[in-house]
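Technical annex B. To support the medicinal chemistry partners, we prepared a structural model of the target in complex with magnesium ion, based solely on the information shown next.
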Amino acid sequence: MASLELQGLTKKYGDFTAVDHIDLAVRDGEMVALLGGSGCGKTTILNMIAGFIDQYEGSVLVDGKDMKHIPAYKRKMGVFFQNYALFPHMNTFDNVAFGLKMQKLAKSLIQEKVRRILQLVKLTGMEKRFPRELSGGQQQRVALARALVTEPALLLLDEPLSNLDAKLRVEMQIEIKRIHRELGLTTIIVTHDQEEAVSLADRVIVMNAGRIMQAGKPKEVFDRPANLFVGDFMGFSNFIAGQVRRVAGARVSVACSDRELVLDEADGTGLAAGDSVTLAIRPENILPAEKGAENALTGTVRNVTYKGTVTRLEIGDVFAETVFANIHESEDYEIGDAITVAFPSQKLLLYKKEEKRSE
Ligand SMILES: Nc1ncnc2c1ncn2[C@@H]1O[C@H](COP(=O)(O)OP(=O)(O)OP(=O)(O)O)[C@@H](O)[C@H]1O
Ligand SMILES: [Mg+2]
């Protein structure tokens, strides 16, 4: 069991700042997901925590103790690397047993622990295979087993499920969650899948360009992204430019192109008529509607993509921006059809203009 604190953690490569003043306190037993696009600094942060990068600014504290001069092998962290890095000359059993042998546990205990963990990651029977004799997903699970088997106080997982097929991925997510709950390991998991982050973690940290954009409970980050960047990352793929027309208590009407949408901004946010804003809404929250219903607008179907559980429609002639809607109905839509859709007022988020979308 361990708590982890990052204070002003910064990593520069020449003039380039890969990790930029990260402050983060992870409670004992908490699972935190680092979520962000490629190159935003996730792996670099894990490498500094694990002790694989020792030139950095700021501090890494474990249970309040500065790790600066503690070599990686003494940190007792379970690490799953993005590229797995299995020992190529060792078979599955030996790869997984490595950390336990280092701890000089009794042979019978090592065998029992390896047996249990291989069963967990569904690799029973693969004990004697070498990494080159395993598929990518199997190698990934060996690496996961190796990180978990020593039941480390701090577990660092860098995209542990990225190579698995959808079904196995969900199964392993459930396993990771169960192991986390049972053993109470303080865990940092890196992913660039927002659904994985919100379903696994107690807290989600959304990063961009080496910085934290938002840190919060999964529901907070998923439902109320702090800015347009986080919104975009969390699946709000409709961004509609508008201008505040009226504010009446919490009720705000916004002119978007030559249409109008109303929504409730409970906190008022100091809006006034004339303010430039951006409205955001998820494609799945845009619903087919009757003309005349609240926030119901008519446009033209521009494109139809069947996605299995939903049909994704691109709808033009509503605003200047194309609207993306995921519709559940089995009814077939065709390009050129007129369609009326509602933008439910409680599902619309409003951002003031100065919060620009960054890349
Ligand atoms: N040794 C290095 N020298 C120079 N730049 C580096 C070095 N290592 C990483 N970087 C840069 O630092 C940035 C952060 O890299 P990092 O590997 O932490 O990204 P990441 O968030 O893990 O991305 P991904 O999701 O693709 O794994 C990237 O722009 C990368 O090119
Ligand atoms: Mg990475």
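Notes passed to the chemistry partners:
Helices lie at 42-50, 92-102, 107-120, 136-149, 166-183, 194-200, 218-223, 228-233.
The domain at 4-231 is CATH 3.40.50.300 (Rossmann fold).
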